[in-house]
Amino acid sequence: MIRNTTAGWGSIARWFHWGLALAIIGMIGFGWWMNHIPARADRFFYRSIHADIGYVILLLTVLRLAWRAINPTPAPPAESLRWQKIAARVSHGALYLVVILVAMMGWAHSGARATSYSDFFGLFHVPQFTSPDKAAADAFEDRHIFLAYVLLALISIHFVAALWHHFIRRDRVVARMVTDEVG
Questions:
Q1: What DSSP state is assigned to residue 42?
Q2: Spacing of C-alpha 37 from chain mean position
Q3: Is the pTM here over 0.70, yes or no?
Q4: CA-based nearest residue to 6, from 78, 94, 93, 97
Q5: What SS3 class is residue 124?
Q6: pLDDT tens-digit profile of 58-105?
Q7: For the stretch 68-105, what's the b/e string if a residue is b when 16 or more beta carbons lie within 10 angstroms of its beta carbon?
């Protein structure tokens, strides 16, 4: 099943979910490591790789949202209370929003640096929408890091909710993000 149904997620939606999950969690860890290693000559290289992967995550997130817009969303379990449905919708919306904001603040930081991270894996230059300005670069970087921690908190809430669905409620919410099986 490639496309979503009202009963389950299709393979493309699952690929987007798990691929972005691994990339985002990896980027948060890599970003933390990058900012906590002592200053060294190859620091620009690591930050450039971080930026390149960030551009990919932003693009994949936009594609994921487009895919979600043209596909049905599986219905929540019938026994879900109204507040649970609202919480799920708000938390998913917050995850998408903060992923985009983190990436956009990183991109803004890149353009505001004197030497940007616009060289995409040596293939081409990513257009920058901010101009070099040290104070702005510092502000964008601070917001990027703050929002990355907000994103980590939202991911943690998402993970705990998935555990609750799987182990406490014992419904199919988690299973349908893992397999094609419906039922």
A1: T
A2: 24
A3: yes
A4: 78
A5: strand
A6: 999 999 999 999 999 999 999 999 999 999 999 999 999 999 999 999
A7: beebeebeeeeebeeeeeeebeeeeebbeebbbbbbbb
